[in-house]
Amino acid sequence: MDNKVLGLIELLDKLPIPMYGISDISELPELKNKFTRAISLAQAYSYTLDDYSSTGFNDFLLGKVKGELEQSIEIIEQFLQKENIAYRTIGNVQKDPVLSIGEFSHKYAAVKSGLGWIGKNGLLITKKYGPRVRLSTILIDLELPYNNQDEYNGCKECNACVNICPTKCLKGTIWNSSLQREDIIDVFNCKDKNETRKEYMCGLCLVACPIGKASSSDNKMIFTKSRD
C-alpha cells in the first residue's frame, strides 16, 4: 500500500474522532478528475431531552463540538499539505441559503461510506450514536481503500422525531437511496429554517431519537473497515 495512504489511515485512527468513513466519489460528474474519495468525520456527543434548551443546544453544538472537530480537521489538512495531496474541506455554510443546499452533502458521503442511514428526521443516524454526531467532509485526490454503504435502516416503526416536531414538517417516510429530501421533510416548514436559525437551533427531532442514547462521545469507536 502507498506510503501516503498508510500515513493518512494511521493519522485518522489516532485522532479523537469516534467515527470516520471513506467513500468513493470518483464517478460524481461535478468532481470527476478532481477528487476520488470523501473522508467523512463524525464527532459524537451526548445530548438528551433532559438537557434540552434551544439556546443551550445551539451553544453546545456550535461551540464545544464544532471546536473539537475543527481541531482534528486542521491536523488532517496539515498532513495533506505536507504530502502534496489535493483536497477540499467542505464547510457548513450553505451555497444556496434559500434552498438550504450546501456545497457538498455531508450526509451523502457519510451514508455512502457506511456510517449510517438517513432517518425520518432527515439526519444521518448512526447505530452507536444515533443522530448525535456532527459531520464534516474532506474531499481528496488519493486512492484510499473505501467503505461500502450499509443498507441497514433502524428507524422501522419509530416516530419519535415525527411526533415531537413542532411544525409537523416530518413526513414519517422510511428512507431508501432512491428518495429525495422532499420525500422526508418539508424543509421550508422546519422551525430551524423559518424561525430560529439566526439565534438558535430547534433540534428536537435530533435529541428525541432513541437510537444510540446509551452511548456517549467518550465511547471510542474508530470506523476503518476497508473495501475487500
Topology:
Blueprint: H1 3-14, E1 19-24, E2 37-44, H2 54-82, E3 87-90, E4 94-96, E5 101-102, H3 106-112, E6 117-118, E7 124-125, E8 133-140, H4 160-164, H5 191-196, H6 204-207
Antiparallel strand pairs: 1-2, 2-8, 3-8, 4-5, 6-7
Properties at a glance:
single chain; 228 residues; alpha+beta; 4-stranded antiparallel sheet; two-stranded antiparallel ribbon; 8 strands; 15% strand
Describe this structure in words.
The protein is an alpha+beta fold and 228 residues long. It has one domain (3-207). It has six helices and eight strands; from the N terminus they run αββαβββαβββααα. Strands 1-2-8-3 form a four-stranded antiparallel beta sheet, sandwiched between helices. A two-stranded antiparallel ribbon has the order 4-5. β4 (94-96) and β5 (101-102) form a beta hairpin. It is globular and about 50 Å long. Residues 216-228 have low confidence and may be disordered.
What general form does the structure show? globular
Helicity level: 25-40%
In order across it, which strands form the biggest sheet?
1-2-8-3
- Structural class category: alpha+beta
Low-confidence stretches: 216-228
- Number of helical segments with 4 or more residues: 6
Order of helices and strands: HEEHEEEHEEEHHH
How many separate domains? 1
How many whole angstroms does the radius of gyration measure? 17 Å
Strand tally: 8
